[in-house]
Design brief:
Elements lengths: L1 H15 L10 E8 L6 E9 L6 E7 L4 E8 L8 E2 L10 E2 L3 E8 L2 E7 L13 E9 L11 E7 L5 E7 L1 E4 L11 H11 L8 H7 L9 H11 L3
Parallel strand pairs: 1-12
Antiparallel strand pairs: 1-2, 2-9, 3-8, 3-10, 4-9, 5-6, 7-8, 10-11
Length: about 230
């Protein structure tokens, strides 16, 4: 049944994407977060930076050998809520516009994600917000350096255009808010600014690095956690 749903969703996506003229201003970013001590649990994020509206997408990820996907968490841009009137095409006048997200882990190193809604409602949220996260478990010594994860994507508009491309994953450390591959006093200060509401210009994907305890809120607990990383506690 899940395979049939995946086939139908992929077919639906190809109908949406009449032609593949990528919008130069739009792009997709992935990052995989771990900590400096090399723990085996990592979190991958997928974010869409967009000026245009898209109603469905597919992603094909190739992960390093020794990686197992243990969970997927859909974030708010794919939870539009609300309803739409589909009574003219055999549906309900109050049918939900929530996105359906299908995740198929086809083998230990390859996985496919398809998201769509029957209401043809554009992906919500601010540009740069994280669409979903993937929780990964790895065996000893698995690296997520640049070039070890491949992501091929296609985001579809309802008519006329789609955004397609291949990107490489950005390896990140928990707490590396300033993206310099280290967790130091600069990050500690940056998180302090976020907690005290002085860091409102921080992008969603960089703010995610500051949410060390993954509570969906950046607060004093994260501030202390990053302080402990900096002081090697």
């Amino acid at each position: 049944m899940n395979k049939l749903k995946l086939i139908l969703a992929t077919a639906l996506l190809s109908v949406f994407a009449v032609c593949a003229n990528a919008q130069q201003s739009d792009n997709v970013a992935t990052a995989t977060y771990g900590n400096a001590t090399g723990n085996k649990t990592r979190t991958m994020t997928v974010a869409l930076n967009h000026a245009n509206d898209y109603v469905a997408f597919t992603l094909n990820l190739t992960l390093p050998e020794g990686t197992t996907v243990t969970g997927v968490s859909v974030k708010s841009p794919l939870k539009n809520g609300g309803t739409t009137d589909l009574s003219g095409v055999g549906g309900s006048a109050t049918e939900s516009t929530d996105f359906n997200v299908l995740f198929n882990h086809t083998n230990p190193t390859k996985c496919n994600v398809v998201a769509y809604n029957y209401g043809n409602v554009a992906i919500g949220g601010e540009s740069g917000e994280i669409l979903f996260t993937i929780t990964l478990e790895t065996t000893e010594g698995v690296a997520f350096d640049e070039g070890t994860v491949e992501c091929k994507y296609e985001f579809a508009k309802l008519v006329g255009e789609s955004l397609t491309g291949t990107i490489e994953n950005d390896p990140r450390l928990w707490g590396d808010v300033v993206k310099d591959k280290n967790v130091d006093a600069t990050d500690f200060q940056a998180v302090g600014n976020i907690v005290t509401k002085l860091g409102n210009g921080t992008t969603a994907i960089d703010a995610f690095a500051a949410d060390v305890d993954q509570s969906d809120e950046i607060d004093a607990t994260d501030y202390q956690a990053i302080g402990n990383i900096v002081t090697k506690k």
